Automatic annotation (TrEMBL):
It is a multi-pass membrane protein. It is found in: Membrane. Residues 4-72 form the Cation-transporting P-type ATPase N-terminal domain. The chain crosses the membrane at residues 52-70, 76-95, 240-257, 277-297, 630-651, 707-726, 772-795, 807-825. Keywords: ATP-binding, Membrane, Nucleotide-binding, Translocase, Transmembrane, Transmembrane helix. This is Cation-transporting P-type ATPase. SUPFAM superfamilies: Calcium ATPase, transduction domain A, Calcium ATPase, transmembrane domain M, HAD-like, Metal cation-transporting ATPase, ATP-binding domain N. It holds the Pfam family Cation_ATPase_C. The lineage of its organism: Bacteria, Pseudomonadati, Aquificota, Aquificia, Aquificales. InterPro entries: ATPase_P-typ_cation-transptr_C, ATPase_P-typ_cation-transptr_N, ATPase_P-typ_cyto_dom_N, ATPase_P-typ_P_site, ATPase_P-typ_TM_dom_sf, ATPase_P-typ_transduc_dom_A_sf, ATPase_P-type_domA, HAD-like_sf. The keyword RNA-binding does not apply.
Length: 831
């Protein structure tokens, strides 16, 4: 459409300068549909069922089936209840988050002015159709993609679409050849952009999904990748299932060979299955994430998708936009050079259409600058009234006014230095030097001049002026961003700034906030297509700035990084950011951004600042470490139970635990302790560590060794205790003491789990890093005493004497001491 003249565009769209008739508009609304983007929404049933899509849950459901088949309906009901509670918690949190996002949406639809039957009327934007003639003025949001047919001083903010922070001029006359990028199509207005200044009239050629914004929205149909946490947990669950299958198959085969009683054999297998499955893990992870989400909310971060809480901690790249995230999203006078300062200030005040905070951002910035210099521009405007104006001309790149100044007429002019230089009578060599110095810093430079005139000029370019100064503008960096970037670098996270701005401006900003370093590379978006995926990945390793980037460029950058196993967080607020936000491992939208960006993101930052994101990364890493500790605690306890049961089976001893006792153990140990891991404080500076792959964060060799080490001693100590007790007391008493000993062992293992360093190294810290752990154990102690002394028949126990408790304390002290010695050895090795 940008290649057609206004008349050709009207003919192509079968329209006229007077617009469509009402009847034709109705026909086209039926043909083309409403001018809006339809949302795809997940049903509540799908959200609920997704909570159970986890291998651990599948194992538990298998245990439910076997237990129910064996006739133990109580145990089956308890396990099934745990699964349902976990699913309901996740479902409620996700639905609440979705409701929170929907509450951010606008409650009323905007309207547009169009010509119908030659008359100006106002209609809902959704009813605008191709062929409509739309009238636009300052402050309007462009309702559809439009070919201009008339314009006057039109300035458009296209940052929502292109990422360009500075408004661009538009006019109806320019015609272009083929393959012109959207940021160069000066005769086209795009849906969602904003009229900053001037007036325009144009014919609609695309609505709804056919607009540039609509085409971008189509890319959001691509499924978002699974979170690193979910991938890691699924990987772990699969390995754990295979290990369980091998262990239980071995026991079953061995039992059949030894001609064991089949009922007892199946009872053992059920016991081991219940022991081995950390049924509380999905629930605990959810709980840790919920607490993390609440902590992030205090840090101005709204979580839409719970697993994304941890994704932040695993991020290796942050691909950030510039405007509104790294910078303030408003222009500011950064520097000026004056030949004559008073005339420069007068020109900035009088050749200016802005008023306080309304108008062209450049002109608003000028007024703010004048106010900061204590120059009363309001008084000057009253004293020196405007008697003529030459509105901003996009081709000449200047504007001018004539004002009455103490009985004389003075022309004040501002615009591009190249334009004013042609009108100047002075030597401009030093002015050119000033201009180039400011441009090299990434500043947008305006020149100012004046001339005394006798009459209103007939042709503006014939006026001879004196240039009185240059003013450089910049979109300033936000407070705290530089420190945040430096923190991210220390944490091994690479920050790439992707923006629609020009290369010089982008690099200048990136240098100010430490994104662009001495050996870094900056590349323009149109060069990206020259590289293969492998070449682009190698380039991105050393690239910190991508300028003049299109949505497709940002999308490809994210995909290339992901294919190379990088975990990518993407920030954005405009429609141009939507494709990248959708496919990123973690899409982070700005609170002041578009609804489209918020809809596809997994997090929303209410304070549009990169510093908030880096702070959230720190919280994410703390959450990841807490999940690691939970996994260690649950698996070491579960595997300890397996060691005990398997050892008794191999030695042809009776079962030391009943299946219902194993579930009780999980309740009074894991059930009251594992939830408290969510409240563990950061015990070391996690932002000084490099990011790890999620699989390594949760389950690496060190984690596996720690689990087996603890499980071996926990199972071994209690097996020896059980063997000894069978010789000196009844089977019921032996089971009760072993049952209680194992519970106490797991409590002490929990105390050791809350810190990486030795427990006794800093007792105060050990008791304060997570005081909730001790509260949880207190509840567990009360429950266990009730099980032994009040309801012994429910759990196959008998009351214990005071003498019996010495065995419980002895095994717990031995296990605690063994783990403490191991941690001291590791600590000394690290040192």
């Amino acid at each position: 459409m940008y290649m057609l003249t206004p008349q050709e565009a009207l003919e192509e769209l079968k329209s006229s300068p007077g617009g469509l008739s009402r009847e034709e508009a109705k026909r086209r609304l039926i043909k083309y549909g409403y001018n809006r983007l339809e949302e795809e929404r997940e049903s509540l049933l799908i959200i609920f069922l997704r909570q159970f899509n986890n291998p651990l849950v599948f194992i538990l459901l298998t245990a439910v089936g076997i237990t129910f088949y064996m006739g133990d309906r109580l145990d089956a009901g308890i396990i099934l209840g745990i699964v349902l509670i976990n699913g309901i918690l996740g479902f409620v949190q996700e639905v609440k988050a979705r409701a929170s996002i929907e509450s951010l949406k606008k409650m009323t639809e905007t309207h547009a002015k169009v010509l119908r039957d030659g008359r100006e009327i106002e209609i809902p934007v959704s009813q605008v159709v191709p062929g409509d003639i739309v009238l636009l003025q300052e402050g309007d949001v462009v309702p559809a993609d439009i070919r201009l047919i008339d314009s006057k001083g039109l300035l458009i903010d296209e940052s929502i679409l292109t990422g360009e922070s500075v408004p661009v001029t538009k006019n109806a006359e320019d015609i272009y050849g083929e393959e012109v990028p959207i940021y160069k199509q000066k005769n086209i207005l795009f849906k969602g952009t904003i009229v900053v200044r001037g007036k325009g009239k144009g014919v609609v050629y695309a609505t709804g999904k056919n607009t540039e914004i609509g085409k971008i929205a189509e890319k959001t149909k691509e499924k978002s990748p699974d979170s690193p946490l979910n991938r890691a947990l699924k990987s772990f669950s699969l390995k754990w299932m295979i290990l369980l299958f091998l262990i239980l198959s071995f026991i079953l085969i061995l039992g059949i060979v030894q001609e064991r009683d089949l009922y007892k054999l199946f009872l053992l297998i059920i016991s081991e299955l219940v022991s081995a499955v950390p049924e509380g893990l999905p629930l605990v992870v959810t709980f840790v994430l919920v607490i993390g989400a609440m902590a992030l909310a205090k840090r101005k971060t709204l979580v839409k998708y719970l697993p994304s809480v941890e994704t932040l901690g695993s991020a290796t790249y942050i691909v950030s936009d510039k405007t509104g995230t790294i910078t303030e999203g408003r222009l500011k006078v950064e520097e000026f050079k004056a030949v004559e300062e008073l005339p420069l200030l007068l020109c900035a005040a009088l050749c200016n259409d802005a008023d306080e905070n309304k108008g062209d951002p450049l002109e608003v910035a000028l007024l703010k600058w004048l106010s900061d210099r204590e120059f009363d521009w309001k008084k000057v405007r009253k004293s020196y009234p405007r008697i003529w104006e030459f509105p901003f001309d996009a081709n000449l790149r200047l504007m001018a006014t004539v004002n009455q100044v103490e009985g004389s007429k003075y022309l004040f002019i501002k615009g591009a230095f190249e334009s004013l230089k042609k009108m100047s009578t002075q030597d401009s060599s030093y002015l050119e030097e000033w201009h180039d110095q400011m441009a090299e810093k990434g500043l947008r430079v305006l020149a100012f001049g004046y001339a005394k005139v006798d009459n209103i000029p007939e042709t503006i370019m014939q006026v001879k002026i004196k240039i009185v100064g240059l003013v450089g503008f910049i979109d300033p960096p936000k407070e705290g961003v530089k420190e945040a970037v430096e923190t991210a670098k220390k944490a091994g996270i690479k920050v790439i700034m992707v923006t629609g701005d020009n290369l010089k401006t982008a690099v200048a900003i990136a240098k100010k906030v430490s994104i662009y370093g001495e050996n870094d590379v900056a590349v323009e978006g149109d060069k990206i297509s020259d590289y293969s995926d492998e070449e682009l990945y190698n380039l991105l390793k050393i690239t910190s700035v991508v300028s003049r980037a299109t949505p497709e460029d940002k999308y490809r950058i994210v995909k290339v990084l992901q294919r190379n196993k990088e975990i990518v967080a993407v920030t954005g607020d405009g429609v141009n950011d939507v494709p990248a936000l959708k496919i990123a491992d973690l899409g982070i939208a700005m609170g002041s951004g578009t609804e489209a960006a918020k809809d596809v993101s997994k997090m929303i930052i209410t304070d549009n600042n990169l510093a908030v994101i880096v702070d959230a990364v720190k919280q994410g890493r703390t959450i990841a470490y807490n999940i690691r500790k939970v996994i260690y605690y649950l698996l070491s306890c579960s595997f300890g139970e397996i060691m005990l049961l398997t050892s008794a089976f191999l030695m042809k001893l009776p079962l030391p635990l009943y299946p219902i006792q194993i579930l009780w153990i999980n309740l009074v140990t894991e059930g009251v302790q594992d939830k408290t891991f969510a409240f563990s404080k950061e015990e070391k500076n996690l932002m000084e560590e490099k990011p790890k792959k999620p699989e390594k964060t949760f389950f690496d060799r060190k984690q596996l060794f720690d689990i087996i080490f603890t499980a071996f001693f926990m199972g071994g100590i209690n097996f020896l205790l059980f063997m000894y007790l069978l010789k000196i007391t009844s089977y019921e008493k032996a089971v009760t003491i072993t049952f209680t000993s194992l519970i106490a062992n797991q409590w002490f293992n929990g105390f050791q789990s809350i810190r990486i360093e030795p427990f006794l190294k800093n007792l105060k810290k050990s008791f304060t890093v997570n005081p909730y752990m001790y509260l949880g154990v207190s509840i567990g102690v009360i429950l266990q005493l009730l099980a032994i002394y009040v309801f012994p028949q429910w759990l196959h126990t008998v009351p214990m004497s005071l003498e019996d408790w010495k065995y419980v304390l002895l095994t717990s002290a031995v296990l605690f001491g063994i783990i403490e010695i191991k941690k001291w050895i590791e600590y000394l090795i690290r040192k």
